[in-house]
Structure formats: structure tokens, C-alpha cells
Amino acid sequence: MTSEKAKLVPRPSVAPYHRHPLHEYQLSAAAKLGGKTAIVDGGQELTFTQLKDRTANLASALAAMGIGKGDRVAIFAPNCWEYVASFYAISWIGAVVTTLNPSYREREVEFQLRDSGARAIILAESLYPVLEPVLPRLSGILNVIVIGESAGKTSHSFEDLTSTMSDGPPAVVIDPEEDVVVLPYSSGTTGLPKGVMLTHSNLTSNVEQLIGRHEIGAPKPDDVLMVHLPLYHIYGMNVIMNVAVALGATQVMMGRFEMEQFLQLLSDNRVTVLYTVPPVVLALTQFPGIRDYDLSALRLCFVGAAPMSAEMQTKLESTIDVATVQGYGLTESSPATNADFMEPSLKKPGSVGPPLPDTEEKVVDLETGQRELPRGELGELIIKGPQVMKGYWNNPDATADTLRDGWLYTGDIASMDEEGYVSIVDRKKELIKYKGFQVAPAELEGLLLEHPSVSDAAVIGVPDEEAGEVPKAFVVATGAVSAEEIMEWVAEQVAGFKQIRQVEFLDQIPKNPSGKVLRRVLVEREREKSQA
């Protein structure tokens, strides 16, 4: 180990952390940088003062509807300035944001609204048809706020609520370390999606662990950040949105990804920092007209949400001539826990780098999860730090399984070298990672069993160059049904990233004596077939 690396790893502490409600970032930015552009969204620009005023008006309107501390409010929309205002307005009144993927279908929306017990929903006008048939089955949803033209007599107009001046919302006492501010849904280690309880301090601690870290190219107040990653996802939510607001940096919104528009936005807005994911990296390296766009303002590309090879990382750097680093995290850790260095002499392409400040990590044996392994050996990565979640919503068993003695058991198989750099190798958990999105096999298996011609099913992830992994179903059929029919049937009921991409028919699904599906057997069969 070189002496230089020995000094930098582990990273110096950033304690003491500033314990304050999350929305204080927005109030502070408005006070210091009121006239500066906070958000560029299409042809519209909002200053920090304008954004704060809209937020305050919405917070007052929510409070007037009876929404208060601890109540859950859903946001169901693509990236837009209204999303940011909604997020901070909910925080301002002490309520809890639960974020829905805008590609969700009816059954997925109903599950999350029912499970979270949401009392209100703020949604894009285009998504109202997905919500409408669900509403009669959810008596607890009392308030519907529509971004765009009001969709019905029972809903409120976002524009009306945010343009009506108010004296501000009522004061609410918030305990940042105990009070939950956001409830994103993750599949955790296994099973159906679970609400991840993240407190104000979880998120603000992670923001403080990221800002000021010059060795990873952390954003600065004069940076312009691209927001093409969805704000409903913890990566876009905290690493981009909350970091940008905390610093007073400018965000450029993109609601739906399209490569040429993406490159044009990067060029026109002189974007300096790009947070992205491996599928976008792959697309950038393969796009034939990339040299036609001026990307000279970019100084950093930060890649997370899924592993990326050293070769792909290096290829992106040479393609767009920008420093590229990888990071790692989970919804359950707010999310960031690791980041590599920008400095070429310290960077290890393919690695996610050492832990962030005040973050402890171990690699433990897969059997018991108790014995710490020597450096270089493969095991499960476990994490401890101020950014680790409070637990899973209404799920003490899953919480106890994932949080043990303060350690977050990630389910990811990793190795740590002598200098503290971590490499993510595989997953102990059975989640499928499609373009960075988590897909729970159990959810798809349950859906497949509802098909009248399916008697049994198992789902695994199989490698895919573009997506990382795609869901493949193994099906025991009871009648005449084709693979295409099954894939189309599933596609009608789930979001695009959850769709079955391959189907194979079997006579029997491998299971253990207790009836648990042996997905590992199916994974091994797939590996043997691909090697053959």
C-alpha cells in the first residue's frame, strides 16, 4: 500500500453532522441565492426564491387539507420542477413522501398506496388514468392533486394550489433523527417491495458525506447538474436533487430519456456534472453522432446503481473525454456508501472505491454473516453509518433480517482489497437488476401463477449486455400457451422494467423439501448453457 493511499483511506470524518429537517436546504438556498436559477425545465426556469414560494404555497394547501406530521403523501410523476416543490412541501409539514415509478400500472400503484397508507397523491395529468380505477378501492386517499389540467371534480389543480399566496404552513416540530421523511419502495433482500423508512438525518447525513469531497469530484455551487435519473429513485432523489439544493447548484430536468435530446440538453445548458447509470454509459459509447455535441463543460461523470466493468468505464472516458468514477449504494443507505477517486493515480477502474466518510464496511462469510473475511476474499458486504435506514415500513421481520447490531446486510457479494477499495462481484440476494431498477422475482412469480394456463413458475435474471440483467421465466404450463402470450400478458400488468423478456417451459420447477424455489439451480443451468 502506498503512503498516499494509506492517508486517504479511510476518508476523514465530516462529523459533527448538522441535524436539521431536510427542507431547510431549500429555505437556506432561497435566503442566500434567491435570484439564482434553481431549475431549468423545458422552456421554464425557476429561481430558488420562486421555487421556495411555490413550495410554501403547496405546503400550506396540504396542511389545510388536514395532512400533517407522519401522514404519507405519494408523488406519481416524471421529473419536473413540480416534483421538487412537492417533495419539499411534504417535508415542510412533517409528512412523509412515498414515491411511485411513473411507469407503474394499476396493480402496482394500488399496492404501494395501500401498503403505505397514503392520504394524498400528487400526480401528473397523464398518469391520472392509471390512478382513477384504483381510487374507489382506496378509501384512505382523500386528496388528489393533479399537475396539469385538473382531471375531475374531486381533484385539485397543482397550479392553483401553488400560485395562491399564503402566509406559509404551520410550524411543525421535527426530530430529524427519528422522524421519517421519505418512504421509497425497495425489494430489500427478497420478496415483495417494502417501504424503506429514511429519516431527515439519514438523507442530510448522506448529502454531507457527498458534498465537499473534492477527491470524488463532488458538485460545487456553480455546477450545473443533469437530472435524467428519475427523482422517485433514491439515486436521483438524494445524490442529485438534494445535493444540488443543499449546494445551490442548478438542475436541468429531463422527464423521459431520449439520447439526442439528452445530448442536446447537456450541450445547451453547459452541464458540468453528470450522474448516470451503466445502460446510459453503454449507449453513449455506441452513439455514432456524439462528436456533434459540445460536451466540453462536463468535468465529471459519476456512475452508480449497477456494476460497470473497468473496460466500459475507460471507454466512456475516452469517448467523451471526461473523468469517470463509480460509486455504490442502496435505497436502504440513502443511498451512497462508496465512491472511487477522480485522481488517476488513486482511481481503480471497475471498483466502487472505498467507503464514504464515517461509513464502516466489512466483508463477512456468506454462511453465518458473522466472521469478517481477510482482504481479497469474497463474501457479503455489510455497512454501518449515519445514512443507514431506520427500517422497513410495517415489516419488523424484514428489518431484523437486514439490520443486525447496527449493520446493514446488503446481500451483495463483494471483495475489499488491502487499501479499502470495494469491488461488487455478484448478489447473494435474488433481485434482478434491470438497467439499475430492482425487480423482485417473487412479485413476477405471483403474477404468473394468476395466468389460467400456468401451474407453477420461477423467475431469475439472465445476463444482458444492454440492461445488465433481464427477467426470465420458467413456466410449467397446464394448457396450450406460447412464450409470447405469457410475455404479453405480464407486460399488460407491470411496468416496463419488470416485463418478462424470456420464457422457458419446464415439466417441474426445482424446489427444496419445504417448497422454496431453488432459483440458484436455474441460474447455474443458465450459466452452463451459455458456456456450452
Order of strands in the sheet with most strands: 2-1-12-11-13-14-15-16
CATH second-level architecture of the domain at 432-531: 2-Layer Sandwich
Average pLDDT level: 91
What summary fits the major beta sheet?
8 strands, mixed
Name the overall outline: globular
* Fraction in beta strands: 15-25%
Number of helices: 16
Return residue spans where pLDDT drops below 50 for at least 5 consecutive residues: 1-8
At CATH level 3, the topology of the domain at 432-531 is GMP Synthetase, Chain A, domain 3
The level of helicity is: 25-40%
- Look at the structure and give the CATH class of the domain at 432-531: Alpha Beta
Beta strands, count: 27
CATH superfamily of the domain at 432-531: ANL, C-terminal domain
Rg, nearest Å: 23 Å
Overall SS class: alpha/beta
Our measurement of the CA-to-CA distance between the termini, rounded to an integer number of angstroms, reads 40 Å
